[in-house]
Amino acid sequence: MAASTEAPEPWYLALLGFAEHFRTSSPPKIRLCVHCLQAVFQFKPPPRVEARTHLQLGSVLYRHTKNSELAQTHLEKAWFISQQISQFEDVKFEAASILSEFYCQQNLVDSAKPVLRKAIQISQQTPYWHCRLLFQLAQLHALEKDLVSACDLLGVGAEYARVMGSEYTRALFLLSKGMLLLMERKLSEVHPLLTLCGTIVENWQGNPIQKESLRVFFLVLQVTHYLDAGQVKSVKPCLKQLQQCIQTISTLHDDEILPTNPAALFHWLPKEHMCVLVYLVTVMHSMQAGYLEKAQKYTDKALMQLEKLKMLDSSPILSTFQVILLEHIIMCRLVTGHKATALQEISQVCQLCQLSPRLFTNHAAQLHTLLGLYCISVNCMDNAEAQFTAALQMTTHQELWTFIVTNLASVYIREGNRHQELYSLLERINPDHNFPVRRFLRETLKMSNAEDLNRLTACSLVLLGHIFFVLGNHRESNNMVVPAMQLASKIPDMSVQLWSSALLKDLNKACGNTMDAHEAAQMHQNFSQQLLQDHIAACSLPEHNLISWTDGLPPGQFQPQNGPTTSLASLL
């Protein structure tokens, strides 16, 4: 690194040693570390030392301080100087990578793109960095929702990895592309890609942990693809394979032997992160299938593991996993009649989103949707409408949009005097509304039965039972309501239990079955009491004030409540 010889100068080694000592002290002494690195420039070092020191200073300032201007200056100098030096790839491309990451953090995405493009252009003879920079630029495009550009880059990466003889990295690029295609709903392209990936993964012989991690990635995509289509029963073999795969990985020891091919120096996720992800997709499956106690069990396990990981690991993906898990369990709580707990967990999501603007941007619509569902459960219909309206303005995701609109329609139905708004909303959901309702419900029942969608089956049964009761067909009504109650108890779904018990009471009364009517009335009374107590507990929480928040970041402080301010009539 010295001007005249290959060996570093003693002064440089001494300053570097001191800087590293201060950086790794407990607690780190960052100011002293920076002083030592800045002192290097006093010696008028050669370009290689100068560029490397700018990179080290920029990295330390970026990672450990709030002095973003100085961090930017040093990283830009490192990138500029290193480009003039031949055979200096590690510093050159690390500078490009960290500078681009810094720009993105500062919301200067348009400054990051040309840096990454230039680095990709000049790194073709350096396989590791070329692949890494392609992944980085693809991720940047994906974060901007430009999935077409991201997919193109991942395709380029897959072909480059194939030419470089790394089937492992080729599979990583292709699986990443498959994930984005799933997000874009380009299912005609997903099927052949996943088939190709499956063949590559099974045929690849290499490091067992790398092979199993590829299988986990592949199976996670398959499982989410099935769940996205509502195929809860069909997905079971894939989900079982995925769970067995993660068990296999947990028994394998990390192999310290690095791959000989520099293009293969990547891993998808750490083992511990994969484990949480498998818990997460299991929770998604359990919830869709209507096994809410099982969903609760796996959520508890995943959240416990996340808390342990977050003590040692600041990776943003852990907070994303945590938010998605909480979103699912909040919906479970609302179904099982635990509104107070759901509200406290909504507050947890708010706190996590306050710590990360990107997390809030990605989950604001879901957060307002959850608050809307909570508002319906405590009969605050004006607030529910406001929450759903806010959520609709924050999403372009088709399935989420449909979910929000159908729940908004349920608010209009409950209010009873919003017919015009309801009809215009139904027109937006399904312009072709010329279908016979009874046949439509029977079709829903048939579909939900075929795929073990227990909640949908229970809701369809009780609604059909109610229709038959109103039509005076008591026998057919009973044939629907009894299995609805059994399914609802198994889930357990408190609203369907309440509805079914009320129907059973009226049915038995109409048929002159006094004892059965009394038993159903007692059940209805028990469910009503449970809901009433939970209603009072939820509305008394300070977090209940969240129902009024519809704009900007969620509030950090909550004023205490004096007690419930909403009517219980519609609940009982």
What value does the Rg take, in angstroms?
Answer: 29 Å
Weakly predicted, low-confidence segments: 1-5, 567-572
Strand content: under 5%
Largest sheet: none
Tally of contiguous helical segments: 25
Number of strands: 0
| SSE ordering | HHHHHHHHHHHHHHHHHHHHHHHHH
How helix-rich are the residues, as a percent range? over 70%
Structural class estimated from helices and strands: mainly alpha
The overall pLDDT, averaged over residues, is 89
CATH first level of the domain at 12-107: Mainly Alpha
Instruction: Report, as a whole number of angstroms, the end-to-end distance.
Output: 79 Å
Shape: elongated
At CATH level 3, the topology of the domain at 12-107 is Serine Threonine Protein Phosphatase 5, Tetratricopeptide repeat
Named CATH architecture of the domain at 12-107: Alpha Horseshoe
Subcellular location: Nucleus, Nucleoplasm
Main location: nucleus
Keywords: Cell cycle, Cell division, Chromosome partition, Mitosis, Nucleus
Pfam family, one: Cohesin_load
